[in-house]
Design brief:
Helix content is 25%, strand content 26%. The strands form 3 sheets. It has a 6-stranded mixed β-sheet with strand order 3-7-6-5-1-8. A 4-stranded antiparallel β-sheet has the order 9-10-11-12, with no helix packed on it. By secondary structure, the protein is an alpha+beta fold. Strand 6 (78-83) and strand 7 (89-93) form a beta hairpin. The chain is built from 5 helices and 12 strands.
Length: 193
């Protein structure tokens, strides 16, 4: 076979292979029955330009815990939400290599059919949850921090039992939160007040 023919055949095979793999992540996933209808955010999330990420960057617009949402569609890579009060559509992008879970499992972690009962937290923790804007406080329990800030990414914090959790502020800035006796103690290695 002439060299130019080999190149054409190689190019065609490569193009077919690329095309067959390109759509795999966008394959529709059936929304689990318990994730239909009105749901509530179980953690605080942030939206930036119509997107929020499984890494839970804490930038731009806050979506508070207990915000009513509806899941409109779900695929292997993302799900589309409608925020109850505003009707705004937000795409939750699931980067599975970081979240370590599929989109349906992630949805079950972040959304529930009932609101989070904030009265189970101390007054200090309730105020922290409602006003959280990136400033951490000593003495906040892990459970309250999850509600206020969301879950740390599992690829660097594989266990919530760990005494150090890593959060992403954005794509470039990370924050390490240290715990002692399941309560926030340090921020990036420095003691908190």
């Amino acid at each position: 076979m002439k060299s130019w023919m080999k190149q054409v055949v190689f190019f065609m095979v490569a193009a077919i292979a690329a095309a067959s793999f390109s759509g795999c992540g966008n394959a529709k996933v059936e929304i689990p029955q318990n994730m239909t209808g009105s749901l509530y955010t179980q953690v605080t999330m942030w939206e930036d330009k119509g997107k929020t990420y499984s890494l839970n960057y804490s930038v731009t617009n806050k979506i508070p815990v207990n915000t009513e949402v509806r899941i409109l569609s779900m695929s292997a890579k993302n799900l589309v939400l409608e925020l109850g009060n505003s009707g705004q559509k937000v795409t939750l992008v699931n980067v599975e290599k970081y979240s370590q879970m599929g989109t349906a499992v992630l949805a079950e972690r972040l959304f529930g059919s009932k609101k989070v009962n904030l009265s189970k937290f101390t007054k200090k923790e309730q105020a922290f949850i409602k006003s959280f804007a990136g400033f951490y406080q000593a003495g906040i329990t892990k459970e309250a921090l999850i509600v206020a800030r969301g879950y740390p990414s599992q690829h660097v914090t594989p266990s919530l039992k760990s005494d150090t959790w890593k959060y992403w502020r954005n794509k470039w800035v990370t924050k390490n939160i240290g715990f002692e006796n399941n309560k926030v103690k340090t921020f990036n290695g420095q003691p908190l007040q």
